[in-house]
Amino acid sequence: MLGSVRRALRAAKARRNAHERPRVRPLAAGFWMLVAASLAGVAIWVTTVWMLGTTNDVLARDAKATAADRARVRLEAVRTGLAAGAGVGAAVGLMLAFRRQRHQEIATALIDHDAGERRVTELYAAAELLGSDKAPVRVTALYTLERLGNHNPIHRQTIVNIICAYLRMPFLSAPPPPTVGEEELAGLPASERAAVAAASAEPTVSWHQERDVRLTAQRLLAAHLRRDAEVPWSGIGLDLTGAILFDFDLSGCTVGTARFGRAAFSGDADFRKTAFTGHARFVGAAFYGRADFELAVFGGDVSFDRAVFSGGTGFRAVKFDGAARFTSATVVDMNGDHVLPPGWRVEGAGAAGGRLARERPAGR
Question: Which of 128, 251, 285, 310 could bond to 332 as cystine, CB 3.0-4.6 Å?
């Protein structure tokens, strides 16, 4: 349900707010300038004193050294000291350049992190908007989720889970009857008044709006699961257990794990050329229109146990790489256009239809 998705998003937001990032407080540039000047001065003084002391000892032992030689040597000592100071200054400058680059990298990482946090906030807000009582607001929320999924692959499965949770919410498979007036209610037996009033409480226009929102959600899922999609969402699993789906079209799509247990397919269900890379579950699903799985590929195990096929069935050239189960699956309309899965037949066909059973090997 959408409520569980909301609770999970609230918990994630609370955990995120509980752990604030520590602020980086770099030392002021003036401090580093003072350090650089001090180190350079110390290097100049130490080097110069050491060089002068060394040269004075050498000149003192050299009886042929002239005053000009002594002046030249002292000048070289000063130059060496200045060069040492310049070297220390260059080293400090290199360190500051590295520090500046490091801070830029940290700033970029923080900007990316903040952008990700904003996307999660938008995801949370869009999930909240799906609970609006206004159909245009819910449609806007769906397109917001789609935009977030296109730009944030890491959140795509969460976004699909939210959309699937919305489709799993209770909904009538047919429009409610017209509103019954008080006069009509007065003419009904007392035992029927409450039931008729409850059934006619929701306006028909509201039903059609909700149906359009759900069709939009279905189209958004299919548009990004198709192999030729402009922005494909690969590796996505679907959980539509118990959902009511209208003219569901997943043809040419690639789906990971698929859960359609107890789903109600109002209208045709089109799974032609659909590739299921994980396990697929259609246990107890009800197909009220044609169920077409022509050229579909089931990479994992698939179960149609207790599924009900009220319309035609199309399993031509379907491929089962794993185990395929149709235990207690029922075909209602025996006069419909049926292409049964390979290795299966209908037995006990009567007015209420027949059940699928494995074909008996020849000679038995």
Answer: 310
Radius of gyration of the chain (CA): 38
Q: Bridge partners of 347?
A: 355
Question: In whole angstroms, what is the distance from residue 268 CA to residue 263 CA?
Answer: 13
What does pLDDT average to over the chain? 79
**Residues ≥6 apart with Cβ < 8 Å to 304:** 282, 283, 285, 324, 325, 326, 329, 356
Q: How many CA atoms lie within 13 A of 112 on its CB side?
A: 7
Rounded Cα distance, 259 and 265, in Å: 13
Q: Which amino acid is at 22?
A: P
Following DSSP, what letter does each residue of 228-262 receive, concatenated? T-SS--TT--EE-TT-EEES-B-TTBEESSEE-TT
Q: Please write the tens of the pLDDT for every residue from 175-199.
A: 766 655 555 555 556 555 555 555 5
Count of CB atoms situated within 10 Å of the CB of 20: 7
Give the tens place of pLDDT for each residue, 12-40. Answer: 555 555 544 445 455 555 666 666 667 66
